[in-house]
Write a structure and sequence with these properties.
The protein is an all-alpha fold. It has one domain (about 25-205, about 230-430): MFS general substrate transporter like domains (Growth Hormone, Chain: A, Up-down Bundle). It has 19 helices and no strands. The chain has helices at about 15-40, 45-55, 60-65, 70-85, 90-105, 110-125, 130-140, 145-175, 185-205, 220-230, 240-245, 250-275, 280-290, 290-310, 315-335, 340-360, 370-385, 385-400, 405-425. The longest helix is centred in the middle third of the chain and has 32 residues, at about 145-175. It starts with 12 loop residues before the first helix and ends in a 10-residue tail after the last helix.
Length: about 425
Amino acid sequence: MVRPDFFDSTLSAENKLYNKAAWRLIPLLFICYVAAYLDRVNVGFAELQMKTDLKFSDTVYGLGAGIFFIGYFFFEVPSNILLEKVGARLWIARIMVSWGIVSGLMIFVRSAEILYLLRFILGMAEAGFFPGIILYLTYWFPSRLRGQMIALFMLAIAITGVIGGPISGLIMTAFRDSQGLKAWQMLFLLEAIPSIAIGFLVPLLLPNGVQSARWLSEREKVFLDQNIRTENRSKHHLTLRQVFAEPRIPLFCIVYFCSSAGLYGVAFWLPQIISNTGITNPLTIGLLSTIPYGLAGFSMVAFGKSSDLRRERRWHFAIAAFLGAIGLSISAISIHNTILSMFGLSVGTAGILTALVLFWPIPTAVFAGTSAAVSTALVNSIGSLAGFAGPYVIGKVNDQVKRPDFSLYLIALTVAIGGILVLLFVPRQLPADVD
C-alpha cells in the first residue's frame, strides 16, 4: 500500500523529508488534541442532563463551561516557557495525564461551586498544550508549510466533533443510572480514560525536537535544522520584556479572541442549539452535530493548503471569518427550523474553525526563539478568554431575553470583526513568508 503524501509538488528530496517528519509527528499530535478537545467540550453534552439533575440555570452552566479559560489564562505563559525548558515530550505527557484525571473528577460535581472549581483546575492542567504544540511545529516545519501542518493538527477539532458527538450521545443514552452514576457522570468518567492512557505513551513516541529524533539520519537533522535557522534569521527575536511591549501582540490577541468566541460559542452550545430546533434525543443530537464538523474538516485542510501555496494569509483568514459570521446569522434567523439551522451551523462552524487554522501561521511567521514561545502562549491565553466570555454571554443572554438567536448574532458580529481587523492591520507579506 502506498502511503499518501502531505505535499503534492514534485516530491523532491526536501518534500519527501517533510513528508517523513509529518507522518511521524502529526498523527500522534492529532490524537492528543482529539483527547484534549473532547475533555474540554464534553460538558456541552453533559449539560443536556446535568442542568436538570443539578438545577443549573444557563448562566451557571455558561460560567462553569467558560471558567476553564480563567485557569488556562493564568498558567498558559509559564507552561509554554517550561515546555521550552523541560522539553515537549515530558511536558505534554504531564499535561495530558493531569487534565485526564481532573476531567474524570467531574463526576463529583454536586453544586455550582464544585463545577466552577473543577473547570478552573482543568484549565490550569491543560494550560500550555495547544500553544506548546504550535510552538513545537515551528521547530520542524518552515512557514511555507505551516498552514497545512497546523490545519492537519487542528483537524482534530473537526474530527472530535464528528466522532465525539455520536460517542457522547451514545454514552448519554446507554449509561442512564449505570453503576449508581448518572449518564453525564459516566460521560466524564469514560472520556477521561483516553487522555490518561495517551499521556503515558507520549514520552515513548514523541521526540523533543529534530536532534532527538531517532528516525532521522544526521544529514536529515542538519538539513531540517538549517532550514529553520535560516528562516528564523528573518524573524524578530525579542526579550521577555519586549514581547509584552510589542504593539502587534494586542492585535493578534484581539483577532484570536474574536475567532475563539465563535469556536467556543458553537462548541459548548451546539447540542443546545440543535435541541432548540425540536430535536430531543441525545443520540440524534450527537449524530446531527457531526455535520458541521465534517464540513469544517474539509474546509480547514483546503484553505490551509491554498494559503501555503499562495503565501497569502490575510484574505484566506478574512473570507473564512466572514463565512463563519454569515453561517451563524443564518442559524439565528432559522433557530426553530432544523434543516436551515443545520445549514447555517455547518457553514458557520466551517468558517470559524478554518479561520482559527489560518490565524496561527501569521504570528508564527513573525516571532522566533523564546519570543515565539512567549508570544504564542500570550496570544493564546488572552485570546482564549473568549472561551470564558463566549459561553457565559450566551448563557446570560439566553436567561435574560429568552431569545437564543440574539446570542448567535452577537457571536457572528464578533467573528466578523476579527476578519476586518486582519484585513486592516496585518501586512500583505510577513517576514517568514518572503522568499
